Every structure is written in structure tokens, then in C-alpha cells.
Amino acid sequence: MSSDIGPRRGLMLVISSPSGAGKTTLSRMILQRHSDVTLSVSATTRAPRPGEEDGVHYHFVERDDFRSMVNEREFLEWARVFDHFYGTPRAAVQQELENGNDVIFDVDWQGADAIHDQMPNDVVSVFILPPSIEALRKRLEARPGSDPEKVSRRMAGARNEIRHWRRYDYVIINENIDQAYAELENILLSERRKRLRQLRLENLVQELLDED
Ligand code: 5GP
Questions:
Q1: Could you tell me which of 8, 38, 148, 211 has the fewest CB atoms within 10 Å of its CB?
Q2: Residue owning the nearest CA to atom 24 of ligand 1
Q3: What is the pLDDT of residue 1?
Q4: Nearest of 146, 121, 132 to residue 175 by alpha carbon
Q5: Taking the model in full, what pTM does it have?
Q6: With contact defined as beta carbons under 8 Å apart, do 195 and 201 qualify?
Q7: What does 16-55 look like in DSSP terms, one character per residue?
Q8: Residue 88 Cβ < 6 Å to ligand 1
Q9: Which residue, among 36, 83, 48, 49, has the nearest Cα to 192 in the 3D structure?
Q10: Low-confidence residues of the chain, pLDDT below 70?
Q11: Do the beta carbons of residue 9 and residue 98 sit within 8 Å?
Q12: 13 Cβ contact list (under 8 Å, min separation 6)
């Protein structure tokens, strides 16, 4: 969908949810339908899995390089997950925002919090909730390779994530994926109209106020 608001500063759309509530599907739908939205590509020290491409799924880096990126403050946030390090590069995000593109972050509540701390005026955060605990369980059970132990571990993880719902600007209950998508797109299009993001307003208003 095209935007008719002229030059604008992009926004950071931070989307979190318990696994199984639909955040990855919704992020993909936004990316497919909006050419001016990009996905933040994290750096990681883990090895690529089959099918993963450097620069697309992750920037795969050596530990020493990751460490120096941390020292140089090149990450908006970073974390150790099991044996590997993951971080969100700052420069690429800043460039996209200046170019008028939005950036999606598919992160957990801790990542969302850290990103918000760094760039509070640019972040719009959305939490996706499942409609019920039974619906969440069904979605997790339907995942390829799921077994009862994995499902109960994921259910515990989901409850842990859901506890942090109050930190978010918006909450969408994903009962129906098309409806949830429409709500997310509405949020995106409305947030683009925030005064501070519309870069032509100062000039336009000046012209409107100038005397003949
Ligand atoms: P995986 O190795 O399976 O791709 O990801 C492992 C975990 O790392 C996932 O929970 C994922 O959300 C997390 N992760 C991926 N990128 C980042 C990042 O840039 N920052 C943080 N804090 N976590 C990340």
C-alpha cells in the first residue's frame, strides 16, 4: 500500500508474542505487502544451519568480531542465548529509518525493552496474544516435530512471555490471522502519521501561515 504522507522518518515496529501466537507469520505478511518495510537482520556467533544465508537470516560473525562490535557499541542490544551471542546492529537500522523505511524486530520482551531504551521515540511495540490457552496449546502441538515435553516447555515459556504484555503500546488478539493482520497494518499506517514522523509538515505549515 502506498503512503501519501510524503517524506517521513521510518519507525521501528517491535513485535513480540509467545511462540505459537503468530508473530512470525504476521511479520512475514507485512514484509510481503509493504516494500518500504524491512526486517532487522541480527548478528550471531552460531554457525549457519542448512539453507541459512549470510546477510539474510543472520550476519554470521566470529566471536572476536562480535566482541569488538560490542565494545564499539555497534549493537542496539545483544544477548547470550545458550552458547551463542546474538545482537541487533545499530547502523543498518538508523540508515533505514533515515531513508523513510520501517524496520520490523521479531524479538522477545527483553529484546523489546532494550531496543525501546535505546530509541524510545522510534519504537512502536505490539504484543500478539493467542485467543485462549487451548488455542495456543493446539498451535504448539501442530508444529512439525513437536512432542509432549517440547509442548509443555513451550507452554511454560509462553506464560513467561505473556506476563510482560503491559510493556507494549498495542496488543492484538490473534483469533483469525487475516483480522490480526488488518489490525497490525492499521497500527503501522496510523503510526506513520505521527507528527514527528512526517518530515514535510514544518514547511507545509509555514507556507500555510505565510501571508500573501
Ligand atoms: P536461533 O539460533 O534459533 O536462530 O535463535 C535462538 C534465539 O536467539 C531465539 O530465541 C531468538 O529470538 C534469539 N535471537 C535472535 N536474534 C537475536 C538478537 O538480535 N537479539 C536477541 N536478544 N536475541 C536474538
A1: 211
A2: 86
A3: 44
A4: 132
A5: 0.91
A6: yes
A7: E--TTSSHHHHHHHHHHH-TTEEEPPPEESSPPPTT--BT
A8: yes
A9: 36
A10: 1-3
A11: yes
A12: 30, 37, 102, 103, 104, 105, 124, 126, 188
Q: Cα–Cα distance between 191 and 108 in angstroms, integer?
A: 21
* Any atom of ligand 1 within 6 Å of the Cβ of 86: yes
58 Cβ neighbours under 8 A, 6+ residues apart: 41, 42, 43, 44, 46, 48, 52
- The size of the chain, in residues, is 212
* Domain regions of the chain by residue span: 12-193
From the CA of 210, how far away is ligand 1's center (Å)? 52
For residues 136 and 161, give the distance between their C-alpha atoms in angstroms, rounded to a whole number: 13
Structure confidence by residue, pLDDT tens digits, 100-146: 999 999 989 999 999 999 999 999 999 999 999 999 999 999 988 88
- Side chain identity, residue 159: R
Hey, what CATH topology would domain 12-193 get?
A: Rossmann fold (3.40.50)
Q: Give residue 211's pLDDT.
A: 80
How much is the CA Rg of the chain, to the nearest whole Å?
19
User: Measured between alpha carbons, how far is 192 from 5 in angstroms, rounded to an integer?
Assistant: 8
Give the dihedral sign, CA 115/119/122/123. positive
Distance (Å) from CA 86 to ligand 1 centroid: 6
